[in-house]
Write a structure and sequence with these properties.
Layout lengths: L8 H16 L3 H12 L9 H13 L4 E5 L5 H8 L6 E6 L2 H13 L6 E5 L2 H4 L11 E4 L6 H11 L5 E5 L15 H15 L3 E10 L2 E10 L1
Parallel strand pairs: 1-2, 1-4, 2-3, 4-5
Antiparallel strand pairs: 5-7, 6-7
Keywords: Methyltransferase, S-adenosyl-L-methionine, Transferase
Pfam families: Methyltransf_3
Organism: Microbacterium aurum
Length: 225
């Protein structure tokens, strides 16, 4: 039995490229969405290709018809989610920045899933209450300002149903979540969200560390009870 390779940034990058090449592949519409995001000087914080494929497979696995995404950015993850939905399915995605929403709209339409996606422009805390009368969502993806994670989780519970799957991105923050000396607002928001997943009886949750094209981070997964 051969010895495992030592963990290094180069080795992690090589594994990520191998997994993307083997299981995700090239996709012109997704590549164009990333290119449009870069051209608009938007932050390069979209999910990694393997993370996008994971969201897609999770939505398919639970038979999701209605998806709520908090944090559209350039629409990369939105496209992955919309592609997982059947005819008549709907992604409602919330983006605080109008300019970002415009870039996302163009990319989503170019990818051929525009009829499945509704973009709501505004801060999540302001937009979420307007969805209270909608049908419950089957999957909620939270990938916005980390300081508001507990607010978003509360609304995910209100807007979901028993069995709704909730995915929270960026919960490890390159290990900073476990560093007691780090009291930054983003890390504090992540910790508050994880504590809520632990203590609030509406959730049953776990979390996983990830190491991919976006570096060392992680996701939390929860099911509404």
């Amino acid at each position: 039995m051969s010895e495992p390779l030592p963990l290094s940034a180069d080795a992690a990058d090589a594994v990520d490229r191998y997994l993307v090449d083997t299981l995700v592949g090239e996709d012109p519409a997704l590549a164009a969405a990333v290119d449009a995001q870069r051209a608009a000087a938007m932050p390069a914080i979209e999910v990694a290709p393997t993370g996008g494929k994971l969201l897609h497979l999770l939505a398919r696995a639970i038979g999701a018809r209605r998806v709520l995404e908090i944090g559209t950015l350039g629409g990369y993850s939105t496209i992955w989610l919309a592609r997982a939905l059947p005819d008549g399915g709907r992604v409602v995605t919330i983006e605080a920045e109008p300019a970002h929403a415009a870039v996302a709209r163009a990319s989503i339409d170019r990818a051929g899933v525009g009829e499945k996606v509704e973009i709501r422009v505004g801060r999540g805390a302001d937009v979420l209450p307007t969805l209270e009368d909608a049908e419950p969502f089957d999957l909620v993806f939270i990938d916005a300002d980390k300081e508001s994670n507990s607010i978003y989780l509360d609304w995910a519970a209100r807007l979901g149903r028993p069995g709704t799957l909730i995915v929270v991105d960026n919960v490890v923050r390159s290990g900073r979540v476990a560093d007691p000396a780090d009291d930054s607002a983003q890390v504090a928001g992540v910790r508050a969200g994880l504590a809520m997943l632990r203590d609030d009886p509406r959730f049953d949750a776990t979390a996983l560390q990830t190491l991919d094209a976006k570096g060392w981070d992680g996701i939390a997964l929860a099911v509404l009870v």
